């Protein structure tokens, strides 16, 4: 059994203090939007490193930490990723995507052209490790891989937004080219490509809204609410 340390990092707050902190974080995250136009403004590597350390604190199955983050700023590699991604996207928009999917995408004005993959200063490719590989070459089972990596990506997006950076989650399908270009091992599958940087001065966002709390949550309390 692993040794244990005292639990730190949970301040002794009253209800009002907890609410203030919760609402302050909500206010920070409320304006977060997906961005498709980035400035080429450089972003220090230290900022990305900090966000990745935050992502690495995400809860995960049996603490196997089944993720690898590959942060790319090299122009030639970003170009190769763009070329490969656009090839897949042309196939997607050119007939592989169901008509209802294309219809759902229409309000966002997306197409096969992805210039942001070169313009943004950083691309972060997230890989899910189907299993681990020990130093002796034997394999190690990983648990709840997709759930764990998904939570880590949420931490990453929140950290980048908190640092004042815009993000785009890009998922060309299939994404096997990322493993090839970034030379990742066979036990890693591309999970998500996070584009991040400063938004362009002329960046806009579609006029959409999020569902209100009453449509996304239910509370089961002694006062009795359930279902709905």
Concise account of the structure shown:
Helix content is 38%, strand content 15%. The protein is an alpha+beta fold and 228 residues long. It has one domain (36-200): NADH Oxidase (3-Layer(aba) Sandwich), CATH 3.40.109.10.
Q: Write down how many β-strands occur, each being a DSSP E stretch of 2 or more residues.
A: 6
Structural class: alpha+beta
Helix content: 25-40%
Indicate the radius of gyration in whole angstroms.
20 Å
Q: What is the highest CATH level, the class?
A: Alpha Beta
CATH H-level superfamily title? NADH Oxidase
Low-confidence stretches: none
CATH topology: NADH Oxidase
What does this structure look like?
The protein is α+β, with helices and mostly antiparallel strands and 228 residues long. It has a single domain, classed as NADH Oxidase (3-Layer(aba) Sandwich), CATH 3.40.109.10. It has 8 helices and 6 strands; from the N terminus they run H-H-E-H-H-H-E-E-E-H-E-H-E-H. The protein has helices at 15-29, 45-55, 75-96, 99-105, 116-119, 145-162, 176-181, 213-216, and strands spanning 67-72, 122-129, 131-133, 139-141, 166-170, 188-197. The strands form 2 sheets. The chain has a 4-stranded antiparallel sheet with strand order 1-2-6-5. It has a two-stranded antiparallel ribbon with strand order 3-4. A hairpin with a 5-residue loop joins strand 3 (131-133) and strand 4. Helix 2 (45-55) crosses helix 6 (145-162). The longest helix is centred in the middle third of the chain and has 22 residues, at 75-96. It is globular, with a radius of gyration of 20 Å. It starts with 14 loop residues before the first helix and ends in a 12-residue tail after the last helix. The mean pLDDT is 93.
């Amino acid at each position: 059994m692993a040794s244990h340390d005292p639990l730190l990092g949970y301040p002794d707050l009253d209800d009002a203090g907890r609410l203030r902190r919760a609402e302050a974080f909500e206010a920070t995250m409320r304006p977060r939007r997906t961005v498709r136009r980035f400035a080429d403004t450089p972003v220090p590597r230290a900022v990305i490193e900090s966000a990745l350390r935050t992502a690495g604190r995400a809860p995960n199955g049996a603490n196997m930490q089944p993720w690898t983050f590959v942060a790319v700023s090299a122009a030639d590699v970003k170009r190769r990723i763009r070329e490969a991604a656009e090839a897949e996207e042309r196939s997607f928009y050119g007939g592989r995507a169901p008509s209802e999917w294309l219809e759902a995408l229409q309000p966002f004005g997306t197409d096969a052209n992805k210039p942001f993959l070169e313009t943004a200063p950083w691309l972060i490719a997230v890989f899910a490790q189907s299993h681990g590989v020990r130093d002796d070459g034997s394999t190690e089972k990983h648990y709840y891989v997709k759930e764990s990596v998904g939570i880590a990506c949420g931490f990453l997006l929140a950290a980048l937004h908190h640092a004042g950076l815009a993000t785009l989650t890009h998922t060309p399908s299939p994404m096997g080219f990322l493993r090839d270009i970034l030379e990742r091992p066979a036990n890693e599958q591309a999970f998500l490509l996070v584009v991040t940087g400063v938004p362009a001065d002329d960046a806009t966002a579609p006029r959409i809204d999020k569902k209100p709390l009453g449509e996304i949550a239910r509370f089961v309390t002694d006062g009795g609410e359930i279902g709905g």
